[in-house]
Structures are given as C-alpha cells and as structure tokens.
Design goal:
The protein has about 150 residues and is α+β, with helices and mostly antiparallel strands. The chain folds into two domains: about 40 residues; about 90 residues, no CATH class. It is built from five helices and three strands, in the order ααααββαβ. α5 links the parallel β2 and β3. α3 packs across α5 and α4 crosses α5. The chain is extended and about 80 Å long. About 15% of the residues are buried. It comes from Streptomyces clavuligerus. This is Thioredoxin-like protein.
Amino acid sequence: MQRALDRLTDDTAREAGEELVRALLALHGDGLDRLVRALPQGALGRALDDPAVAGLLTLHDLHPEPVGTRIGRALDATGAGRVERTGFDPATGTLTLRREGRGCGARPEDVENALACHAPEVTAVVWEREESERPLLQIGSRPPAEAR
C-alpha cells in the first residue's frame, strides 16, 4: 500500500490517496467492530490464534484479550514452550524473556514476528541469561603429536 501511495507524486493526489486509505481502514474497523459485538461471548476462540485475524483485531483495537494473554498466544504459536516471561513494561513496550533449561526452542526472530501480529504493543524483546547458564564446553581435535 505504501508503494502505491509513494507513486502519487502530486501533493493533492497523495493527500487524496491517504484520505482514501484512512476511510477504508475506518470502514473495515467499523465492520469488524459490529461483527465482533454480534458474536456470542467466546465465539472467536480459535480464530484468535490466526495471526491475520489477531492482527486485524489488534489494529482496530478490537481484540478481546489483554496484552498479557496475547503475548502468551504469540509464544505458544512459535512453540516457544521453554520460554519464561519475566516482565513487560507497557510504558516502553519492552518484553523480557528467559529460556528455561537447555536445548532448542523457537528462534528469537520467530518470537518477534509472532509478537508483531498478536501483541504489537511489544516493541522490544530482551533475552535474559539464566544465572546458572555456562558457556558450552567446546571439544576440538587433539593437539599435534609434537605438542603432547
């Protein structure tokens, strides 16, 4: 959409294009609001797991869940089950996470992408290191025979 607006080089055309985008967003937001209000309590259920649905509802401030629950959905969506939330500062948008135990989990970029859809209030992710975490022991090949 931004590329289309960038092609409108005349100031009047650009203003008209931006006004059209605002009007379309308002129309979609109004329609989504009416749809969400018409549904019975809890009817959105599984649809809230869909990043496109979650993103639209969040964009129009219609998502029925608080940010903490949406952060949990984002972490669940990435399979980041070995991640502990240690804090969220709504004033700065900073979410602090810590990996639990060793092993693989979701990649940080996957977590950040899921958060962008489900909880765009999160603007920064800080990964803490566990106190007990030690660097991995690196085992290399034997030293040359003359060095032994």
